[in-house]
Amino acid sequence: MNAVTPPLLSLRGLRKTYNAGRPNEVEVLHGIELTLGQGEFAALIGPSGSGKSTLLNILGLLERPSDGAHEISGQSVRALDDDGLTAMRRRTLGFVFQFHHLLPAFSALENVTLPALARDGHVSIAVRERAKSLLEGVGLAAAMQRKPPELSGGMQQRVAIARALVLQPALVLADEPTGNLDTASSDEVFALLRRIHGEDGTSFLVVTHDPRLAARCDRVIELVDGRIARDAPVLRGEG
What we know:
By secondary structure, this protein is of the alpha/beta class.
Protein backbone atom coordinates (compact mmCIF):
# COMPACT_ATOMS: atom_id res chain seq x y z
CA MET A 1 0.00 0.00 0.00
CA ASN A 2 1.36 3.43 -0.94
CA ALA A 3 2.25 5.76 1.92
CA VAL A 4 0.24 8.96 2.18
CA THR A 5 2.33 12.00 1.33
CA PRO A 6 2.26 14.46 4.23
CA PRO A 7 1.26 18.07 3.55
CA LEU A 8 4.05 20.49 2.81
CA LEU A 9 3.12 22.51 5.89
CA SER A 10 1.08 21.50 8.93
CA LEU A 11 0.25 23.57 12.01
CA ARG A 12 -1.83 22.09 14.82
CA GLY A 13 -2.81 24.01 17.93
CA LEU A 14 -0.06 26.56 17.27
CA ARG A 15 0.27 29.30 19.90
CA LYS A 16 2.68 32.15 20.37
CA THR A 17 3.01 34.01 23.66
CA TYR A 18 5.33 36.89 24.42
CA ASN A 19 6.60 37.77 27.92
CA ALA A 20 5.32 34.48 29.35
CA GLY A 21 4.89 34.57 33.11
CA ARG A 22 5.22 38.34 33.31
CA PRO A 23 2.54 40.94 34.04
CA ASN A 24 2.65 42.02 30.39
CA GLU A 25 2.21 38.48 29.01
CA VAL A 26 0.28 38.44 25.76
CA GLU A 27 -0.77 35.57 23.52
CA VAL A 28 -0.67 36.63 19.88
CA LEU A 29 -1.62 33.37 18.13
CA HIS A 30 -4.38 31.25 19.62
CA GLY A 31 -4.32 27.62 18.50
CA ILE A 32 -3.74 27.99 14.75
CA GLU A 33 -4.79 24.98 12.64
CA LEU A 34 -3.45 25.14 9.09
CA THR A 35 -2.23 22.83 6.34
CA LEU A 36 -0.72 23.78 3.00
CA GLY A 37 -0.27 21.20 0.27
CA GLN A 38 2.42 20.98 -2.35
CA GLY A 39 1.73 23.33 -5.25
CA GLU A 40 -0.82 25.57 -3.51
CA PHE A 41 -1.00 29.30 -4.13
CA ALA A 42 -2.61 30.92 -1.09
CA ALA A 43 -3.07 34.43 0.26
CA LEU A 44 -2.77 35.34 3.93
CA ILE A 45 -4.82 38.43 4.77
CA GLY A 46 -5.98 40.23 7.89
CA PRO A 47 -5.96 43.64 9.58
CA SER A 48 -2.88 45.13 11.20
CA GLY A 49 -2.28 43.54 14.58
CA SER A 50 -3.98 40.29 13.60
CA GLY A 51 -0.79 38.24 14.02
CA LYS A 52 0.20 37.88 10.36
CA SER A 53 3.80 38.96 10.91
CA THR A 54 4.20 36.65 13.89
CA LEU A 55 2.76 33.72 11.96
CA LEU A 56 4.98 34.47 8.97
CA ASN A 57 8.06 34.62 11.21
CA ILE A 58 7.17 31.21 12.63
CA LEU A 59 6.54 29.76 9.18
CA GLY A 60 9.86 31.24 8.06
CA LEU A 61 11.59 29.52 11.01
CA LEU A 62 12.68 32.89 12.38
CA GLU A 63 10.67 32.50 15.61
CA ARG A 64 9.63 29.46 17.59
CA PRO A 65 6.01 28.86 18.64
CA SER A 66 5.19 28.65 22.33
CA ASP A 67 3.03 25.56 21.92
CA GLY A 68 1.53 23.28 19.29
CA ALA A 69 2.84 21.19 16.40
CA HIS A 70 4.70 22.62 13.40
CA GLU A 71 5.74 20.22 10.65
CA ILE A 72 7.28 20.67 7.21
CA SER A 73 6.87 17.68 4.89
CA GLY A 74 6.09 15.53 7.93
CA GLN A 75 9.18 16.56 9.90
CA SER A 76 8.70 18.26 13.26
CA VAL A 77 10.23 21.71 13.24
CA ARG A 78 10.00 22.23 16.98
CA ALA A 79 12.47 19.39 17.59
CA LEU A 80 15.23 21.15 15.62
CA ASP A 81 18.03 23.16 17.19
CA ASP A 82 19.14 26.49 15.71
CA ASP A 83 21.51 24.86 13.22
CA GLY A 84 18.76 22.48 12.16
CA LEU A 85 16.34 25.36 11.66
CA THR A 86 18.88 27.22 9.53
CA ALA A 87 19.48 24.14 7.39
CA MET A 88 15.75 23.53 6.90
CA ARG A 89 15.14 27.20 6.08
CA ARG A 90 17.80 27.14 3.38
CA ARG A 91 16.65 23.77 2.05
CA THR A 92 12.89 24.35 2.03
CA LEU A 93 12.00 28.04 2.01
CA GLY A 94 12.36 31.06 -0.24
CA PHE A 95 11.51 34.62 0.81
CA VAL A 96 10.22 37.67 -1.05
CA PHE A 97 9.69 40.87 0.93
CA GLN A 98 8.02 44.21 0.31
CA PHE A 99 11.46 45.79 0.42
CA HIS A 100 13.69 43.57 -1.67
CA HIS A 101 16.87 43.85 0.47
CA LEU A 102 19.21 43.59 -2.50
CA LEU A 103 22.86 44.45 -1.91
CA PRO A 104 23.51 47.66 -3.88
CA ALA A 105 27.20 46.93 -4.56
CA PHE A 106 26.43 43.57 -6.19
CA SER A 107 25.07 42.93 -9.68
CA ALA A 108 21.63 41.45 -10.20
CA LEU A 109 23.23 38.07 -10.97
CA GLU A 110 25.41 38.20 -7.86
CA ASN A 111 22.38 39.08 -5.72
CA VAL A 112 20.48 36.07 -7.05
CA THR A 113 23.34 33.71 -6.18
CA LEU A 114 23.72 34.97 -2.61
CA PRO A 115 21.58 32.22 -0.99
CA ALA A 116 23.93 29.60 -2.42
CA LEU A 117 26.94 31.53 -1.17
CA ALA A 118 25.40 31.66 2.31
CA ARG A 119 24.53 27.96 2.27
CA ASP A 120 27.58 26.45 0.60
CA GLY A 121 30.30 29.09 0.95
CA HIS A 122 30.66 29.24 -2.82
CA VAL A 123 28.55 29.50 -5.99
CA SER A 124 28.65 26.41 -8.18
CA ILE A 125 28.47 26.53 -11.95
CA ALA A 126 25.05 24.86 -11.77
CA VAL A 127 23.69 27.51 -9.40
CA ARG A 128 25.13 30.32 -11.51
CA GLU A 129 23.49 28.89 -14.62
CA ARG A 130 20.18 28.52 -12.77
CA ALA A 131 20.46 32.15 -11.62
CA LYS A 132 21.00 33.25 -15.21
CA SER A 133 18.04 31.18 -16.36
CA LEU A 134 15.82 32.66 -13.65
CA LEU A 135 16.81 36.22 -14.56
CA GLU A 136 16.05 35.46 -18.19
CA GLY A 137 12.72 34.01 -17.09
CA VAL A 138 11.77 37.17 -15.22
CA GLY A 139 12.66 39.34 -18.21
CA LEU A 140 16.05 40.61 -17.02
CA ALA A 141 18.40 38.89 -19.46
CA ALA A 142 19.86 42.26 -20.47
CA ALA A 143 20.22 43.52 -16.89
CA MET A 144 22.16 40.72 -15.19
CA GLN A 145 25.27 42.80 -14.65
CA ARG A 146 23.46 45.95 -13.59
CA LYS A 147 23.36 46.87 -9.91
CA PRO A 148 20.13 47.51 -7.98
CA PRO A 149 20.40 51.34 -8.02
CA GLU A 150 20.34 51.11 -11.82
CA LEU A 151 17.07 49.16 -11.85
CA SER A 152 13.46 50.26 -11.39
CA GLY A 153 11.49 49.13 -8.35
CA GLY A 154 9.65 46.49 -10.34
CA MET A 155 12.92 45.20 -11.82
CA GLN A 156 14.50 45.01 -8.37
CA GLN A 157 11.56 43.00 -7.10
CA ARG A 158 11.95 40.60 -10.02
CA VAL A 159 15.60 40.11 -9.01
CA ALA A 160 14.39 39.37 -5.47
CA ILE A 161 11.95 36.77 -6.83
CA ALA A 162 14.74 35.08 -8.80
CA ARG A 163 16.87 35.08 -5.64
CA ALA A 164 14.04 33.42 -3.67
CA LEU A 165 13.84 30.62 -6.26
CA VAL A 166 17.52 29.93 -6.95
CA LEU A 167 17.79 27.06 -4.45
CA GLN A 168 14.50 25.53 -5.68
CA PRO A 169 12.53 25.88 -2.43
CA ALA A 170 9.35 23.90 -1.86
CA LEU A 171 7.61 26.97 -0.40
CA VAL A 172 7.99 30.69 -1.07
CA LEU A 173 6.79 33.07 1.64
CA ALA A 174 6.03 36.44 0.08
CA ASP A 175 5.43 39.28 2.54
CA GLU A 176 3.62 42.14 0.77
CA PRO A 177 5.74 41.49 -2.35
CA THR A 178 3.98 44.24 -4.34
CA GLY A 179 3.30 46.66 -1.48
CA ASN A 180 6.05 49.07 -2.54
CA LEU A 181 5.15 49.13 -6.24
CA ASP A 182 2.78 51.11 -8.43
CA THR A 183 -0.28 49.32 -9.81
CA ALA A 184 1.26 48.39 -13.16
CA SER A 185 4.46 47.01 -11.59
CA SER A 186 2.41 45.27 -8.91
CA ASP A 187 0.31 43.46 -11.51
CA GLU A 188 3.44 42.52 -13.45
CA VAL A 189 5.21 41.06 -10.41
CA PHE A 190 2.12 39.16 -9.26
CA ALA A 191 1.63 37.72 -12.74
CA LEU A 192 5.24 36.55 -12.58
CA LEU A 193 4.60 34.73 -9.28
CA ARG A 194 1.58 33.02 -10.79
CA ARG A 195 3.56 32.03 -13.89
CA ILE A 196 6.35 30.50 -11.80
CA HIS A 197 3.76 28.64 -9.75
CA GLY A 198 2.18 27.26 -12.90
CA GLU A 199 5.47 26.24 -14.49
CA ASP A 200 7.34 24.82 -11.48
CA GLY A 201 4.60 23.85 -9.03
CA THR A 202 6.30 25.85 -6.28
CA SER A 203 3.99 26.55 -3.33
CA PHE A 204 3.35 30.19 -2.46
CA LEU A 205 1.92 31.87 0.63
CA VAL A 206 1.43 35.55 -0.16
CA VAL A 207 0.75 38.06 2.59
CA THR A 208 -1.14 40.99 1.12
CA HIS A 209 -3.39 43.88 2.07
CA ASP A 210 -4.54 44.20 -1.54
CA PRO A 211 -7.93 42.50 -2.06
CA ARG A 212 -7.34 42.50 -5.84
CA LEU A 213 -4.28 40.32 -5.42
CA ALA A 214 -5.89 38.06 -2.82
CA ALA A 215 -8.73 37.43 -5.28
CA ARG A 216 -6.17 36.22 -7.83
CA CYS A 217 -4.87 33.52 -5.48
CA ASP A 218 -6.45 30.07 -5.28
CA ARG A 219 -7.13 30.15 -1.54
CA VAL A 220 -7.56 32.91 1.04
CA ILE A 221 -6.64 32.47 4.70
CA GLU A 222 -7.86 35.34 6.87
CA LEU A 223 -6.31 35.94 10.28
CA VAL A 224 -8.23 38.05 12.80
CA ASP A 225 -7.09 38.59 16.40
CA GLY A 226 -4.67 35.69 16.23
CA ARG A 227 -7.21 33.17 14.95
CA ILE A 228 -8.07 31.92 11.48
CA ALA A 229 -11.43 33.51 10.74
CA ARG A 230 -11.71 32.21 7.18
CA ASP A 231 -9.96 29.63 5.06
CA ALA A 232 -11.64 29.06 1.72
CA PRO A 233 -10.91 28.60 -1.96
CA VAL A 234 -11.30 31.59 -4.22
CA LEU A 235 -14.40 31.22 -6.35
CA ARG A 236 -14.14 32.69 -9.82
CA GLY A 237 -17.11 33.29 -12.04
CA GLU A 238 -17.24 31.76 -15.47
CA GLY A 239 -17.04 33.82 -18.61
